[in-house]
Amino acid sequence: MSERVLMKGNEALAAAAINAGCHHFFGYPITPQTEVAAYMSKMMPKVGGVYLQAESEVAAINMVLGAAAAGKRAMTSSSSPGISLKSEGVSYIAGSDLPCVIINVQRGGPGLGGIQPSQADYWQATKALGHGDYQLLVFAPSTVQEMVDMVTLAFDKADEYRMPAMILADGMLGQMMEPVTLPEPVKELPKKEWAACGHENKRPHNIVNSLYIEPDELERLVDERYERYAHIQETEQRAECIMTEDADIVVVAFGATARIAMSAVRAARQEGIKAGVIRPITLWPFPNDILKETAKTAKAFLTVEMSKGQMVDDVKLAVECAKPVHFFGRTGGVIPQPNEVLEQIRKIAGGIK
Amino acid sequence: MAVVFDRPHALCDCNLHYCPGCTHGIIHRLVAEVIDELGVEGKTVGVAPVGCSVFAYNYFNCDMIEAPHGRAPAVATGVKRACPDDVVFTYQGDGDLAAIGTAETVHAATRGENIVVIFVNNTTYGMTGGQMAPTTLPNQVTQTTPYGRDVNTAGFPIRVCEMLCTLDGVALAQRVAVDTVPHIREAKKAIKKAFQNQIDGKGFSIVEILSTCPTNWGLSPVEALDWLRENMMPYYPLGVYKDSEKGVK
Ligand SMILES: Cc1ncc(C[n+]2csc(CCOP(=O)(O)OP(=O)(O)O)c2C)c(N)n1
Ligand code: SF4
After folding, report:
1. Contact state of B82 with A52 under an 8 Å Cβ cutoff
2. Beta strands in chain B (DSSP E)
3. CATH fold match for the domains A4-190+197-235 and A239-351
4. Which one of 3.40.50.360, 3.40.50.970, 3.30.70.3180, 3.90.1150.10 gives the CATH number of domain A4-190+197-235?
5. In this complex, is the C-beta atom of B64 within 8 Å of any C-beta atom belonging to chain A?
6. Residue A162: phi, psi to the nearest 5?
7. Residue A198 class from Cβ within 10 Å (0-12 exposed, 13-18 middle, 19+ buried)?
């Protein structure tokens, strides 16, 4: 077991990616993810890996496409405006059944927005990063240790399901320093028989492609992908439940916001309000099952986000409108305060009584 | 009976979808012959982006990747960095390389990315039905320049080899044509040199090939070759624009 070290979220994530066998990183500078690229540029030469600063996010994601197509674990990281540019490439990666990991250290939007933490790319990540019928695996860490653990998980799951995976972090987690334990470097990576890296005259040529001119063929391929997605929805939902067994009010929050929600819930408990937290860890697949189950006992839900309310739709769908779902959010880089969340909990509790 | 002329092994045994008289077919054959002659099919990866040649992944026997429109040099960069011992080439049209993919092209070139770019210049967007391309000649009529390309509003054509030869990362920038037998021989020599450059680790090599699009030019295959000679060659002179062994022209 490695020792515990104090690291910034972005650096810890980068270090964990290298240990997960990612020796190919392609990026383009943008705040607040800069430390990921800086760490990669420092460490990749030491492990015989590739760090390349591309001419744009468009180029960076296509370099990831190339390295992934050649069978390597590849990663790119960016923040909101840069992720918009990557969307074309991500769609092609998904359409070509290639695994890779994309980091989004979110900042405020739309447009150039701001550089403070945000969660306003939830819809983009879970519903519409690029054109076509497809999904990404989306992981939402809430501690620096989780940034580390999830990058390994993201690479493993991306390889297992041959699809892109995203770590949806935010500026707060990226900049925060916490003690972490890094994983040991992986020794063996999965074999990729489909990779386009030269057939060595030993097999027919491999083709990595997303073009299917015949509608029937394209539909069949998308259907196959959706069967995989259905399996993922059944088996990969992840969430953390804190004090939800007896909770009347369940706060639903992901990432750094979940930590704020926890402080508010602890304070509410001291006032005698039975509150709890569900923290989605996978945003796609969304943890529908646990929310649906909790809706049997909870009286109301409060979704807290650093946005104008995006995940709240998924919470409503998950609880099938069996219980009221309230929303509280701050946006533009403003971080919700525990007392603001507590105030919302009190208001809902007043209504319930 | 002795076989004197055969399909190169690197070219698949299938019908190409190109229009009759289109010179894409000749260019495919030349690339395949070079791959055969250098004996590198087993370690070659081709990258073909959107354009008339998008189905190249079905035509070349080496491993193939289809890239988004304009992004082939970035995809090829990813492959080459992942597998430095592979031989990596892109096969791009003019709209792809010099409009939507200009940034990817210029930066792969200036990084001296050790890849081969086969650049098919036919002065038009073939696949989408003959719209103006960055290489469309002044006054040339296309679907989207119905009164001829007006350089005052639509700008001037880009001479790609002339532009790229100023970059230090470029090992070879050569313009060739495939309109006559001597030119086809010359083109093959250039393509072979580009591949050899990569094997020797010399950096970015681009071979621009003046090509016909009889369908969208509205000409017969023979007329198209005449049109290419009369109109394209004066604007896009053939020759070696940069050869790192010899310097810039
Ligand atoms: C992002 C994007 N924009 C537009 C298109 C439509 N499109 C397909 S091929 C093409 C032009 C191809 O022209 P060129 O690169 O010159 O190659 P040619 O077909 O002439 O060989 C365009 C615009 C596309 N596929 N993707
Ligand atoms: S449209 Fe033009 S470039 Fe495309 S295959 Fe036909 S002749 Fe060739």
Report:
1. no
2. 44-49, 63-67, 87-93, 116-121, 124-125, 131-132, 170-177, 204-210, 239-243, 247-248
3. yes
4. 3.40.50.970
5. yes
6. 50, 60
7. buried
The ligand whose atoms approach the alpha carbon of B131 most closely is: 1
Distance (Å) from the C-alpha of residue A101 to the closest C-alpha of chain B?
14
Confidence grade of residue A14 (pLDDT, cut at 50, 70, 90) = very high
Interchain proximity B68–A88, CB inside 8 Å: yes
DSSP state, residue B137: P
Is the pLDDT assigned to residue B175 strictly greater than 60? yes
Angle at A58 between CA A54 and CA A63, to 5 degrees: 55
CATH 3.30.300.30 holds for A239-351: no
Q: Which residues contact B162 (CB under 8 A, 6 or more apart)?
A: B241
Q: Using an 8 Å Cβ cutoff, are B165 and B241 in contact? A: yes
Contact B82 A70 (CB under 8 A): yes
Q: What CA–CA distance (Å, rounded) separates A336 from A71?
A: 42
Banded model confidence at residue A1, pLDDT cuts 50, 70, 90: low
Q: Whose CA is nearest to atom 26 of ligand 1?
A: B69
Three-class SS state of A296: coil
Decide if pLDDT at A86 tops 70. Answer: yes
Helix (H) and strand (E) counts in chain A: 12, 15
Looking at the complex, does the CB of residue B43 fall below 8 Å from at least one CB of chain A? yes
Burial (CB count within 10 angstroms: exposed 0-12, middle 13-18, buried 19+), residue A83: buried
- Domain ranges across chain A: 4-190+197-235, 239-351
Interchain CB contact of A93 with B (< 8 Å):
no
The domains found in chain B, sorted by start residue, are 24-248 (3.40.50.970)
Radius of gyration (C-alpha) of chain B in whole angstroms? 17
The whole-chain average pLDDT of chain A stands at: 97
Q: Is the ipTM of this complex over 0.90?
A: yes
For chain B, how are helix, strand and coil distributed in percent, rounded to 5?
40, 20, 40
Question: Tokens standing for B187?
Answer: 């083109």
Q: Which residues in chain B have Cβ-Cβ distances shorter than 8 Å to A208? A: 64-66
Query: Beta strands of B122-248 (E only): which ranges?
Result: 124-125, 131-132, 170-177, 204-210, 239-243, 247-248
- Residue A353's pLDDT is 54
